Every structure is written in C-alpha cells, then in structure tokens.
C-alpha cells in the first residue's frame, strides 16, 4: 500500500501537513528541498508560496470553494481572506479563516455523524472517520489518503489547537493565541500563517469531496480564474506601495 509517510514526517517536522490538491511530483520536490536545505518554520514560507500562488488560489476561489458542501457557506469569507493575503494584510487574512476552519469542520463532522467533545476532537475524529471510510470502502489511493489524515491530525494536535503557551514554533499559527487575542501584532501576521490556514481549508474541501460528487484533484485554470490571478498580482503590487506609516508594525516585526 503506497503512502506518503516521508512527506508526512518532513512536513510535520516544520509544523505543517500534507496539503491536498497538489501534484504528487511537485509535492515530493518541495519535501526534498525542505530536507536538502535544512528548512525550518522560519524559512518555510517561500516553499509554500509555490503552492499558494495567485494562479493556484484563484482557481480554488473561482472554481472550487463555492462548489464544496459546507465550505461553500463560507466562500465569500475565504475569498476576502485570500484577497487580504495578496494585499499583504495577513493578520486579517488569518483571523478571517480561523472561524471558517472551525465552522466548516464542525459541520463536516456532523454530516458524517462524528462525535466531538472539543474543538480539537473535531479534527481528530473527523480524520479518523475518513481513514476508516477510505480503508473499509477502498476509496481512492488509500495509503496516500491515510497519510494525509495522519499528518493533519498531528498538525492540529501539536500546533493549530495546542495551548498557545505550549506552541513551540516561531510562526505562531495557533487558533487560541490568534482568536483569543493572546497574540499581538508582532506575534503573527506573516504569509506563513496564511499558508497554513488556507491549507487547512483545502484539507476540509478534500474531506468533503470524499463523500460528494466533486473532484479530489485541483481545479484547472479557467478564463475567470486567470482574470482573478491577474487581479491578485495587482493586489501584490498595491500592497508593496503602502505608505511607510502603514508598514511600520510589519517592519518592527522584522
């Protein structure tokens, strides 16, 4: 049974997980780069930027998020968060996505009759249920899907939903610290926080697609997504032209 345990170990070691909707060869190349270059969480962002590019995210926004059950209820929030990211407003982008992760996660768990006792258990039990489902019913590439589920469990347990006082990495992509206001300006608000958060949204899309008539592959570019990607690139340029006063807090973080 083929699996992605090499990828799981590599990505979990830097506080990440195995992202869905990424070509396996491309994912393997990123894992190799992370290993070969001794990448840690503080130098991870450029590698994830290859995945969450304007072209790839525009395709997800225009072609996928609005079509996935439970995720589609938050499509506009997700779209606004993606736009904020490309404008360089990553505090807003991340704080916009965190409630979506929880809301969609709970609705997916309920749709699969998964019992939950806490917010952390939502993702633990949802992933376990999906593992049982694909194994019992031989859905898709079973070994690969099991590795994806295991990697996400480790990410939520050890990073996203761990007590913020126990968060061990410098990027602070942690639900409690962000939503409860324990983390201030200087503590987060970098692209890496967004990449991990939007990756969690994509994971939930993948979970939904296991029991819905939706492709488990990344959407192909369309004329609409290409136009949106061009707009995102304009957002990047606009964000880079912010007056110095607006950039003061981010410069202080660096």
Attribute tags:
254 residues; 61% helix
Polypeptide structure, described:
It contains 12 helices and no strands. It is mostly helical. The chain has one domain (20-253). Helix 4 (54-63) packs across helix 11. The protein is globular. The relative contact order is 0.18. The mean pLDDT is 91.
Which sequence of SSEs, written as H and E, runs from N to C?
HHHHHHHHHHHH
Distance N to C terminus? 45 Å
- Rg result: 17 Å
Question: Strand pairing plus helix content: what structural class?
Answer: mainly alpha
* General form: globular
Number of domains in the coordinates? Answer: 1
The total of helices stands at: 12
Mean pLDDT: 91
Helix content: 55-70%
Number of strands: 0
What is the oligomer described by this structure? Answer: single chain
Strand content: under 5%
Major β-sheet profile: none
Low-confidence stretches: none
Short description:
With 254 residues, the chain is mainly alpha-helical. The protein has helices at 5-12, 24-36, 45-49, 54-63, 75-86, 90-111, 119-137, 142-160, 175-179, 191-209, 223-240, 248-253.
Give the helix/strand layout:
Elements: H1 5-12, H2 24-36, H3 45-49, H4 54-63, H5 75-86, H6 90-111, H7 119-137, H8 142-160, H9 175-179, H10 191-209, H11 223-240, H12 248-253
Helix pairs in contact: 1-2, 1-8, 4-11, 5-6, 6-7, 6-10, 7-8
């Amino acid at each position: 049974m083929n699996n992605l345990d090499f990828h799981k170990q590599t990505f979990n070691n830097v506080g990440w997980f195995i992202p869905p909707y990424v070509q396996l060869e491309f994912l393997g190349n990123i894992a190799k780069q992370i290993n070969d270059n001794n990448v840690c969480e503080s130098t991870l962002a450029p590698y994830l930027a290859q995945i969450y590019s304007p072209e790839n995210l525009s395709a997800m926004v225009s072609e996928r998020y609005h079509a996935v059950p439970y995720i589609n209820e938050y499509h506009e929030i997700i779209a606004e968060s993606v736009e904020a990211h490309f404008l360089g407003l990553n505090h807003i982008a991340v704080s916009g996505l965190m409630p979506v992760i929880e809301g969609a996660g709970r609705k997916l768990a309920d749709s699969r009759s998964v019992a939950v006792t806490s917010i952390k258990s939502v993702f633990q039990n949802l992933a376990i249920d999906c593992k049982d489902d694909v194994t019992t019913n031989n859905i898709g590439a079973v070994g690969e899907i099991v590795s994806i589920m295991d990697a996400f469990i480790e990410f939520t347990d050890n990073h996203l939903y761990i007590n913020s006082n126990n968060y061990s990495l410098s990027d602070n992509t942690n639900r409690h610290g962000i939503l409860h206001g324990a983390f201030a300006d200087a503590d987060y608000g970098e692209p890496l926080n967004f990449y991990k958060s939007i990756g969690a949204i994509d994971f939930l899309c993948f979970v939904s697609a296991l029991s819905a008539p939706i492709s488990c592959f990344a959407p192909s570019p369309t004329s609409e997504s290409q136009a949106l990607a061009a707009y995102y690139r304009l957002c990047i340029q606009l964000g880079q032209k912010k007056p110095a006063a607006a950039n003061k807090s981010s410069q202080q973080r660096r």
